[in-house]
Amino acid sequence: MSDGSVFDISVWFGDLKFKKESDSEPEVDVVFLEKKETDALKDRWLALLDQPRNAGQIQKSVPRLNLAAVAIESGFVNSAAEYHSLLRDVSIAVARSQISASLTDDKKIIQAVETLDDLNETANHLSERLFEWYSYYYPELVFDENFVSTVAETPEKASATKMGAALDSKDSVLLQSFAKDISNLYSQKSALEDYISEKMEAVAPNVSQIAGVVLGARLISMAGGLKNLATMPAGSLQVMGAEKAMMKHLRSRAPSPKHGIIFSHPVLNTAPMRLRGKIARTFASALSLAARTDFYAGKLNPDIEKRMTQKISQIQHNDAHKQKKAQTQKTNGGVSDGKE
Length: 340
Hints:
The chain folds into 3 domains: 6-102, Nucleotidyltransferase, domain 5 (2-Layer Sandwich); 105-201, Helix Hairpins (Orthogonal Bundle), CATH 1.10.287; 227-331, Serum Albumin, Chain A, Domain 1 (Orthogonal Bundle). The chain is 63% helix and 6% strand.
């Protein structure tokens, strides 16, 4: 709004300036007309969507503004039918572009890691079923990572045992086919892990360096995207995945959770119980910084991991000193003054 009742407005086919006085029809002056090409009009429309707009206020002030009539009078189109046909084509092009743009790399990571989790669950469940079934014929078989490939390659091995039931040809073919299907699931799992690793190194190199590619991908998935993870407070990131425990803490006197899904990282699950809270806070703080760096800068910053490692080492060093001091006092029969 430039001067009293004089308005400037950008619309999908050009820039307009018009004047409104009392209840009279607005006087429209076309300042700029876009090329009458679908791609150019689509790009203009998308650019307008990204800008702050006061079109609602203008339309309220000038309720009788007819864009189709303006487009015809300016020579942009020759008829209302042409206007609406072009508007339809451009609207479809804009929708397609928005749908395509919504599939970002972090969304691909989310789909891949959730598929990986489903594959893990399915493959493990089917492996247990195969083992239970095949053990009738070969009870000596050990349930390990190689047993599926053993059945897939040599199901007749059961015929060599004296303890199991006899394995006929039909059962052998069926079990072998079942085992090969499970092996294919494990192959697909390996391919997904490689895909996630490649995407994470490109999209979230700092999160990958701190948490590892799979845990980092799960954090992005649980947050709903890298942007959400980057804007999440470190405290929320620390307990992500422990929502039930947090609600129990808020509703009762249950202790607050010290960590959520990040506990799957070795730096936490190998730490003594007494240190997990401090280490979890340090780890979550580094992850939060890593996510922000990935989202806003997109470049690897080795200093994030270096500072985190130094802080965790300091926590462990202080604890070792404290434990040694307590042990010395206990050995000498001394009494701790309670200070850390």
